[in-house]
Amino acid sequence: MVSYEAEQRVRAPMLRARWLTQTFVNWPCRPESVQALLPGELVVDEYDGAAWVCLTPFLMADVRPPGVSGTLPGLPTFAETNLRTYVRRRDGQDGLWFLSLEVSCPLMLAARAIGAPYHPGTLRVLAEGDTVAYAGSRRTGRASYRLDVHTGGPIEPTERDVWLTSRWRAYTHSMGVLWETPVEHEPWPLAAAAVETMEETLTAAAGLSTPPGEPVVHFSEGVRDVRLGISRPLSPPGRS
Fold it and tell me: What's the gap between Cα 101 and its chain centre?
């Protein structure tokens, strides 16, 4: 099963940050429709017989390389929104696969070198009382979203809650090679949440039909010691 706590220590992080004001909106999807979007080295990870796709907007704060205190000069808190799914390598190791990454900070586009599908855009996060409003649109193309969420009290996470929120590595694909990026942070402090308004075209832009049914929604005030490890290329199966 997916671990509630980080599965590895990232002792030499490439980047440190805080992820704040984060909402997780998860839908079940047909596994075959998601599998068609993955590289051959990865397979869909299923829960209750379904693949799951997650829209998760948040704020990135205090971004800095290791050994540097405080935020990098000229790099304020900025918004990011990920459309992701849950996958496993052929050897069974679980992780995330990003269908798209919307970001308002152009410096993050450097991760395109290892296949991270970043798209620059205009993004907004506004928290007022127990309502959080997210919105964003790409600078090119027509993909956009608007999400208003009503947040509730803290919850004790169930097995499914952990499965839908906790992953400790991300996979990307570039130049015919699968890359792995480890991540370490404290467990997510989760709260109840409900969608008040949602309009989005990110799933369609990624090649998926509109997700059916009501989503499973969680909110988190965030995690404050995120350590992103150095991305490494993985050998194809059967090679050392």
Answer: 8
Instruction: Give every CB contact of residue 55 below 8 A, 6+ residues apart in sequence.
Output: 25, 81, 82, 83, 145, 147, 200, 202, 203
CATH number, domain 15-234: 2.40.400.10
Element (H, E) at 160: helix 159-165
Q: Which tens digit of pLDDT belongs to each residue from 56-85?
A: 999 999 998 766 665 555 567 999 999 999
Where do the structural domains in the chain lie, given as residue ranges? 15-234
Contacts of 5 (CB under 8 A, 6+ apart): 187
Residue with tokens 């999807």: 29
Cα-trace Rg, the chain: 17
Tens digits of per-residue pLDDT, 208-235?
Answer: 998 877 899 999 999 999 999 999 999 7
**Which one-letter amino acid corresponds to residue 204?**
A
Q: How far apart are CA 126 and CA 133, in angstroms?
A: 5
The residue behind tokens 């150095």 is 230
Q: Which residues contact 106 (CB under 8 A, 6 or more apart)?
A: 120
Report how far residue 213's alpha carbon sits from residue 29's, in angstroms, rounded to the nearest whole number.
Answer: 10
Instruction: Tell me the two tokens of residue 82.
Output: 């990920």
Total-model pTM: 0.94
